[in-house]
Amino acid sequence: MLERNSRDDKTKYSTLAAAINRHGMAPDGQHVVVYSGASYGEWIIRLVPVSEWQTEPPADVMSKDRIGRWHPVVAEIRSTGRLDGIGKEHRRRAAVLLHCLATEASARGIKVELVKQVEGRDYHSRRNQPPGLFVLSEQEFRCPVSVKQLQDQLQHEPTAQELARQKQWEWAHIPKYDHVPSERLAILTHDAASYPSEKPWADTKTRRLEDRLVDILAAFNTWVAADTDRRKRQRIEAEERAKRLEMENQQARAAYLEHTLGEMLQADAASWESAQRLRSYVEAMRRRTATIGSAQERAAADAWVDWCERYVEQVIDPLGRQIQQPQVPEPTDKDLGEFRRKLGFGGNGLW
Fold first, then answer.
1. Do the beta carbons of residue 133 and residue 115 sit within 8 Å?
2. Which tens digits make up the pLDDT trace of 228-268?
3. Among residues of the chain, what percentage have pLDDT more than 70?
4. Terminal Cα-to-Cα distance of the chain (whole angstroms)
5. 158 in Cβ contact with 176 (< 8 Å)
6. Has residue 11 been placed in a domain?
7. Would the pLDDT of 351 be above 50?
8. Do 69 and 180 lie in a common domain?
9. Cα–Cα distance between 223 and 44 in angstroms, integer?
10. Residues 38 and 63 placed together within one structural domain of the fold
11. Which domain holds residue 86?
C-alpha cells in the first residue's frame, strides 16, 4: 500500500492506475486501485487480486428460458412491481442482472438486504425513500444498488404546430432533441454517505452489462477496503484527539486547583489578619467591662465578650482549625473552559 498527498502533488494517480491496468503492467492476477483517504488530498494506492466470477456466469443465466429459483431479494422486488419503471420487454433482463449480482455477492459472503419502500406516493414520501432496490454490505460499508433503462437522445423533428407557433410567437421554444427509452440498461451503485451519488454501470457498444457485473463487485471490494482504511484512520485520529483533550483537561484542572488553593490561602491570610485585629478589640472590651460598676451590666458585658472571643478563635482565625489542604470543589464546565483558554487550548473541552 502506498500513501500520497496531492495538495502539493498534481500527479493524476487514478489515470496512472488505469493505464497500468489497461496494459496489464501489474503482477499476474492483480490490478492497481486508487481511492481517497481520510483527509483532503490524501490518496491510497493498493494492489488487489482481480475478482473472478464464482457462480453460474451471467451470460449463461441470461440464455435460460426460465430461472429455477430467484434470489429471495430479487424475487421480492419482482413480486412487488418495483421494476415497472423499465419497459416490459427489458424487465426480465433487468431482473436477471440483479439476480446474478445478488447471487454472486451472497456466494462471496457479502450481505444482500432489500431496501424497503416508504409508504405513500406523495412528494415527502418519495423524497425520503432510501436509494436503491437492495443493499450490498460488508463490515461497516453499505452500497445501495438499483437498475434503470437508459434513454437515447434523438434529433427532434419539429411538428407543423410547433413551427406555426414559433412563427406566431418569437419566444416559442422548439426542443432540439427527443429522449426516448433505449435498448440499454444500467445498474447504479449509490454512495451511502450523506447524499446519494450514483455510479452507473451500463451497456456500451463494446460490452454488455452481463460482462460488467464482475467489475461492480471488484469495485465494491475496493470501496470496502477504502472504507475500512478511512474508518481505521478516523478511529486513530479520534483516539489521539481524545488523549490530547484529556491531557489538556488535566492541565486545566491542575491550573484551576492551583488558582483556587491560592485564593483560599489569601482568604485564610485575610481572616487571620482580621482575627488579630478582632482580638485587640475583644481585649479592649474586656478591659472596659472591668470598669462597669453594676454587677448585672458587667455580667452581661462579660458574656458578650466571651462569645466574641470564642467566635474569633473558632470561626474567624484559620489557625484555630486543623491545618491541612482544603477540599477544592470540582470545576464546572465554565471553570474548565476558562482555564483551557488561559493555557491556550481553546475554551471547549468537550470535543
1. yes
2. 888 888 899 999 999 999 999 999 999 999 999 999 999 99
3. 94
4. 32
5. no
6. yes
7. no
8. yes
9. 11
10. no
11. 51-203
Torsions phi, psi of 322, nearest 5?
-65, 135
> Does residue 267 belong to any structural domain of this protein?
yes
Higher pLDDT among residues 108 and 122, named by residue: 108
List the Cα angle 35/37/43 in 5-degree steps.
55
Cell (9 digits) for 339: 482555564
Q: Which DSSP state fits 210?
A: G
Element (H, E) at 202: strand 198-202
pLDDT in tens, 55-77: 999 999 999 989 989 999 999 99
Query: What cell does 57 get?
Result: 456466469
> Whose grid coordinates read 436503491?
132
d(CA 262, CA 295): 48
CA 305 to chain CA mean position, Å: 71
Query: pTM, whole model, 2 decimals?
Result: 0.69
**CA-CA distances (angstroms) from residue 100 to 53, 62, 266, 295?**
10, 9, 80, 114
Q: Which whole number is the average pLDDT over 150-168?
A: 86
Q: Is 123 exposed, middle or buried (0-12, 13-18, 19+ CB in 10 A)?
A: exposed
Residues with Cβ within 8 Å of 207's Cβ and at least 6 positions away in sequence, in order, are none
